[in-house]
Amino acid sequence: MIAYHGAADAVIPARHxxxxxxxxxxxxxxxxxxxxxxxxxxxPELPPADLRLxxxxxxxxxxxxxxxxxxxxxxxxxxxxxxxxxxxxxxxELLRAPSLRAALHILVEHGCLLSPLLCxxxxxxGGLAALYWTxxxxxxxxxxxxxxxxMTALAAMCRWLSGERLPWRFCFNRTRPRHTEQxxxxxxxxxxxxxxxxAMLIDAAWLDRPWPAAxxxxxxxxxxxxxxTAQPTGQPSAQxxxxxxxxxxxxxxxxxxxxxxxxxxxxxxxxxxxxxxxxSLEQTAADFAVSPATLKRHLARHNTHFQAELDxxxxxxxxxxxxxxxxxxxxxxEHLGFHDATNFRxxxxxxxxxxxxxLRETLLAGAN
Length: 368
Hints:
Blueprint: E1 12-13, H1 17-27, H2 32-35, E2 52-53, H3 55-69, H4 74-80, H5 89-95, H6 100-109, H7 111-114, E3 118-125, E4 128-135, H8 143-162, E5 169-171, H9 181-187, E6 191-192, E7 198-203, H10 213-230, H11 263-273, H12 281-287, H13 292-301, H14 306-325, H15 329-335, H16 341-352, H17 356-367
Parallel strand pairs: 5-6
Antiparallel strand pairs: 1-2, 3-4, 4-7, 5-7
Helix pairs in contact: 1-3, 4-8, 5-6, 11-14, 15-16
């Protein structure tokens, strides 16, 4: 049986990223009780320490913040403070990351906590490394906002931890907005739209370049923790000894290491592992220990359906093969289990609205 949770399950600690949203909105003079509108909660200005939100409540909170603040920079400013965050041991691991590769592995391993709304996925082949996100809870209308927020979070964290601005290429699964000034301010000018994937690409040579400040941060954190442990009961904490700019590191929830993925993330992983064998709804439902009708209902609650999820995985695999292996239509068709390239071309155009040849030329032109 494959374990997963749904969009209505209370799994997100309110004192982590949701609290950051409230704090930022308050700095912009937003009425905090109004931010809770539509969440089903009573509207506490500051959430209790033990409160956990369902993903759909957190998404509503973000939607309210975007509407109330009505500013083009909201997603980017929220992203600036998102990572490493205040997620206990997971955030502490990010702070100690000695390189980009290590940081990306930590982000992916603890994505349920560090990136609960979009699932981070890391792949590398040849000279290209890619970090891309998939929707965890079925919020298609909010994906542009979420992508901007998460890309800014990763770019800002890497810039802080590495001490330099890394040469990321940003790919967005959306049409080019009328104005891109905020993208350029927070992300840079290497922006691509209509990519059918929300991803950040970078030359693999950057993955293992050491981050010199990592050792100093680690030593400072260890010293602060030792001082806090030795502090007499009732005395102030030694948190002030932590590195400048570091978020407070609080004990992690006991379940942070074994957090189960969302339904859509678990399904994506399942389909990706079997994409060459054309998995069926019936077999997938059996492996998830539910009936096909129940799986359909669960997916409908996440604003999607089985074929759409399978087509998304196939699209991502095709894009990856085009970009990293410079594969042609015949090779991709064979990899995805199509009988011939003609059927693949027809299906690919249905998935993306473009022919594979045209999209492949665009991808390769952007890689040069």
